[in-house]
Amino acid sequence: MVHVRKIAMEDAEAYLQLCRQLDEETSFMLYEPGERETTVPEERARLASMFGRDNQTAFVAEVDGRIVGHIQAMGGHVRRNRRTVYLVIGILQAYTGQGIGTALFRAVEAWARTVGVHRLELTVMTHNEAAIGLYRKMGFQIEGTARETLFVDGRYVDEYWMAKLLA
Questions:
Q1: Which Pfam families does the annotation name (predicted)?
Q2: Residue 14 and residue 107: Cα distance in Å, rounded?
Q3: CA-based angle 100:103:104, to the nearest 5?
Q4: Number of other CB atoms surrounding residue 156 within 10 Å
Q5: What's the 3-state SS for the chain?
Q6: Contacts with 23 (C-beta within 8 Å, 6 or more apart), sequence order
Q7: pLDDT digits over 2-40, tens only?
Q8: With 0-12 CB in 10 A as exposed, 13-18 as middle and 19+ as buried, what is 2?
Q9: Which end of the chain is more exposed for a tag (fewer CB within 10 A), N or C?
């Protein structure tokens, strides 16, 4: 059974391991395998900075005490964009298709509503059909296509900008 909760400082090492495993497992994440050079102390500092802002957070999904997925919410830094939050989500391949993504999105949306966030946004590679399906299911709409934004596996890849407005 999956348990979704806010990330804690004690999760820094396990969270970093999760991100590195995601980098290895899929080409849909931003970092290439081995490119993430963040140390555990640097991750702790990043989490401390995030904890110090009311429009930033992260949730982790655990199965049998192991972190298997996450969603980060990064809000704007100035008054004009602080109610807009950019999301990044990742779930280990062995745990996809089990409702974990839905649970993570529900958690981050509930949090967003409590802190006054108006807009959730994200980018997704246009050929990542499973992720696009999840995002649509959660109420996100494609707002546009950013052409050739990433260079993945020897070719340029387009991304969709997707967003959901909260009432």
A1: Acetyltransf_1
A2: 20
A3: 85
A4: 10
A5: CEEEEECCHHHHHHHHHHHHHHHHHCCCCCCCCCCCCCCHHHHHHHHHHHHCCCCEEEEEEEECCEEEEEEEEEECCCCCCCCEEEEEEEECHHHCCCCHHHHHHHHHHHHHHHCCCCEEEEEEECCCHHHHHHHHHCCCEEEEEEEEEEEECCEEEEEEEEEEECC
A6: 29, 31, 32, 33, 34, 35, 36
A7: 999 999 999 999 999 999 999 999 999 999 999 999 999
A8: middle
A9: C
Structure tokens at 14: 């396990």
Tokens standing for 9?
């400082």
Question: Tokens for 89?
Answer: 């989500």
